[in-house]
Amino acid sequence: MSLSVSRRLAAATAIAVAGLLAATSPAALAAPTAVTAAPTPPDIPLANVKAHLAQFQTIATNNGGNRAHGRAGYKASIDYVKAKLDAAGFTTSLQTFTSSGATGYNLIADWPGGDPNSVLMSGSHLDSVTSGPGINDNGSGSAAVLEAALAVSRAGLQPTKHLRFGWWGAEELGLVGSKYYVNSLPAAEKAKISGYLNFDMIGSPNPGYFVYDDDPTIEQTFKNYYAGLGIPTEIETEGDGRSDHAPFKSAGIPVGGLFSGADYTKTAAQAQKWGGTSGQAFDRCYHSSCDTTANINDTALDRNADAIAYAIWNLGAATPVPPGPSFENTADVNIPDSPGAAVTSPITVSGVAGNAPATTKVDVNIVHTYRGDLVIDLIAPDGTAYRLKNSSSDSADNLVTSYTVNASSEVANGVWKLQVKDVAAQDVGYINSWKITF
Ligand code: DTR
Ligand code: CA
Ligand code: ZN
Ligand code: ZN
């Protein structure tokens, strides 16, 4: 919005008042209605999954060409995934273990809510072998599970079950991280896990569509998804002990998962039904240096990522809750270039009973010529700051995105502020609008 400063200020004031008046009042919301069937799961945007793969590739390139256990590339991968989940409102924890003389890391992320005695867990190993970046094995599973988790956050899902996600270390050394996690769980905690879904290699360049033949309900869920696409699947038989579902299965936890194939050769019959090249390995770069971002079949990755969302929504018996009351400020607020002071855009919240939820949603719309310059915080009425975004090297323009904040310790009513500071010189912009939803 390009207005002269005085008109802009007047317009901004008018809009701010109008914006508040137009805010959705709680009374205007229909009471949440329970639904029996699981709602339609979202499409997982392939571009988002591939953006995570690009990050994993960059991490490997910048760290000796791999993301293997005990190497800098693995810890950088963990840090990347954790930051995304923290920003999306997950409760994350890092579990450390030692293997082959090096510290390993499992990342566990819990989505607040759901029945704590019925946990649906999805996971994938995040480590690569030392010989390459491990983009299909297993950046593909890690990126798809991450994006499915972020989709849960974007939807503000409140499933019947409690959703948990895991990214395992040192799988390539013998399922070390997942074994450590399962073996560290008290029996009572193991008993709460109603199912574990494993995704290890789901974007193979010459893909097959394999479904683990373990728990019948989980298996049927995946088969239903693919039947809906008219794609035949095969039972994954050779993988029983070969990935991170094995420790869960050994502990008596129902397991399932998807697989697009590794070093085995695609038969003529399989090529007939799935396309691709018969007589060639499903993944010719398995455990090789060529397992890069070029070693991915987009269609398989997209379908399998969507299958993960389908399984979580259906097995999690997700019950959608319509968004709560929301309040918006559409006044433009200039963001002075560094080293200028931080600016704030206020929203006065009223009529909301109790505290903000653990899934308080903040939508921001900022016009800027280098969004990596920006540090963004949500300031609660009592002055508590919740970091939404740190500065980065992301040189793209504009920032139109959502954050989910666990603001459950804050009283909802009062003046909330979006605080933005430009911490690097030569690029400018303004807050176009922002919205808070309870
Ligand atoms: N062991 C996995 C790859 C792998 C090979 N066969 C299967 C079957 C099911 C899941 C995974 C796999 C790895 O190298 O990470
Ligand atoms: Ca998709
Ligand atoms: Zn592997
Ligand atoms: Zn793997």
From TrEMBL:
Start and end residues of each P/Homo B domain: 321-438
Protein name: M28 family metallopeptidase
Organism domain of life: Bacteria
Record's keyword terms, sorted: Hydrolase, Metal-binding, Protease, Signal, Zinc
Signal peptide: 1-30
Protein family (similarity comment): Belongs to the peptidase M28 family. M28A subfamily.
Transmembrane segments: none
